[in-house]
Specification:
Radius of gyration: 21 Å
Structural class: alpha+beta
Strand order of the largest sheet: 1-2-3-4-6-5
Low-confidence stretches: 1-13
Mean pLDDT: 91
Helix content: 40-55%
Length: about 350
């Protein structure tokens, strides 16, 4: 249910919302209507503010104790210099954790996908991705380090295997799994390093118009592997392409990336293997995060996305023998998960 407030009354007992309303008044907004828009997997919340003249803006509430607005602000300003389709910023308070930004509407990429438009929409998303990857950032992004890559995969063990499934992983199983993680990490770091959105998928892309993709949720961007965002898009945890669709789109990406000199011929030799193995790293991380969101944050909806996410790893089993430890443990834990949940 949408919760609505206007500039004169508050119907929700919410201290952050009260503070947001006062901040808007201080910024000179005196006649407005606010509706709940969404809440993502972090502590951030989003509201849609409609002004008297009908203009719609988006409000971000990022509690400073939990979330910093600075990366979002700096990246939005920086990326806009390369005409990357990020929302315009109107007002913000780093101290209070409030931000007013352009409204890209409420039609996500995921909402509008159909059998007839998959290739055209995904090509738009790939074109925008290449624009991001080619961007020479003025804002110094963190590096996707070996420590971060390994930590992300450890979420799979801690939150999925142990916490969610209750599987008593042995020391030998853990060691074999961590050896596999090392291989995945080295594959990632051996790739060309580019600007990485880090969550480039169908729920974080907005269809602003038939020919424009709007990019949101980019505050965790890093410098990292060239295949990372591409695998996020083409092996999406929330939407599955057919094998033929994925092959077509992967070929389209490679053609455009070579044409625009993002990558060269030498990168093509093992690109598909890098793409697949990068997907394993990301999907292990995602499964762990989905379980953490449930057990730590009380967000149950993401559990439904585990089977699709896991299927991407399972499908690779015959091609990559080094994934054996992951596949064995995943099979045991999915069986446990099904019986317990």
């Amino acid at each position: 249910m949408k919760e609505t407030i206007n500039s004169n009354t508050t119907t929700v007992a919410d201290a952050r919302l009260d503070s947001l309303k006062q901040w808007l008044l201080d910024c000179g907004y005196t006649d407005f209507l606010i509706e709940t828009a969404s809440q993502d997997a972090s502590f951030r919340r989003y509201f849609r503010m409609t002004l008297k003249d009908g203009q719609s803006l988006v409000l971000m509430d990022a509690p400073p104790l939990n979330e910093s607005l600075s990366p979002f602000i700096e990246i939005a300003i920086d990326w806009s210099s390369s005409e990357i389709a990020v929302p315009k910023l109107y007002e913000y308070s780093r101290e209070q954790g409030f931000l007013i930004l352009e409204d890209f509407g409420n039609v996500t990429f995921l909402n509008e996908l159909s059998h007839d438009n998959i290739e055209s929409k995904y090509c738009l998303a790939i074109d925008e991705l290449i624009r991001i990857q080619k961007h020479s950032t003025e804002f110094v992004l963190p590096q996707y380090t070996s420590e971060l890559l390994l930590f992300e995969m450890s979420l799979f063990i801690d939150w999925f295997v142990v916490k969610h499934c209750g599987y008593p992983i042995s020391n030998s199983e853990r060691q074999r799994l961590e050896n596999c993680f090392q291989e995945l990490m080295h594959s990632a770091l051996g790739q060309k390093q580019v600007t990485v959105h880090r969550d480039y998928h169908s729920r974080n892309l907005m269809l602003v118009s038939d020919k424009k993709i709007g990019v949101i949720d980019f505050q965790d961007a890093v410098r990292g592997p060239v295949t990372y965002d591409l695998v996020s898009l083409l092996k999406d945890c929330y939407y599955k392409l057919s094998d033929s669709q994925r092959r077509f789109l992967l070929d389209y990406y490679l053609q455009q990336a070579v044409k625009q000199k993002l990558i060269n011929e030498k990168h093509l030799d093992n690109f598909h293997d890098c793409f697949d193995l990068m997907g394993v790293q990301r999907h292990l991380k995602a499964i762990g995060i989905f379980c953490r969101l449930y057990h730590r944050d009380g967000k149950e909806n993401y559990l439904a996305d585990i089977p699709l996410t896991a299927s991407y790893i399972i499908e690779l089993g015959n091609r990559y023998p080094q994934l054996g430890p992951v596949l064995e443990l995943l099979d045991k834990c999915l069986t446990l998960m099904t019986s317990k949940h």
